[in-house]
Specification:
Helix content: 25-40%
Strand content: 35-45%
Number of helices: 3
Largest sheet: 5 strands, antiparallel
Structural class: alpha+beta
Length: 157
Amino acid sequence: MAKKKITQVVSELLSDFLTDEGYALYHTEFVKEGKDWFLRVYVDRASGNDYIGTEDCEKISRFLSEKLDEKDPIEQNYYLEVSSPGMDRPLLRTEHYERYAGSEVDIRLYKGKDGAKEIHGILNGISGDRITVTDHDGKTWELQLSEIAKANLAVIF
């Protein structure tokens, strides 16, 4: 089964359960690292106001593991990991950029733009395939999503 298909199956298996329990699926990946396969499921609170704890991950993991055993959609052996996307969560999809508009972000570009390859500032928002970020010097950057190698929420202490 193709990687994309497995992540889609996981999304379908979890959809109603997560909604009923007040969670939201943040991201799913099925990847091979060395000789091992990993199914990683990142979940968040639907409200976005609270963080996911280990008890939440355990609850979701038990539910998903049972459903995966029933459906058996994955041919090879794999490790199931359920976790929060973390404080420095990656911004991977349009809805992530929408949800975290106004937040502090760290952006790494594939290639330099105006002398910078990394931008740290406030995510102003997203429109189509472009985001705007205002850095700490007050400069506003307009970036195409295709220019961004990595975008994460910044962790501020």
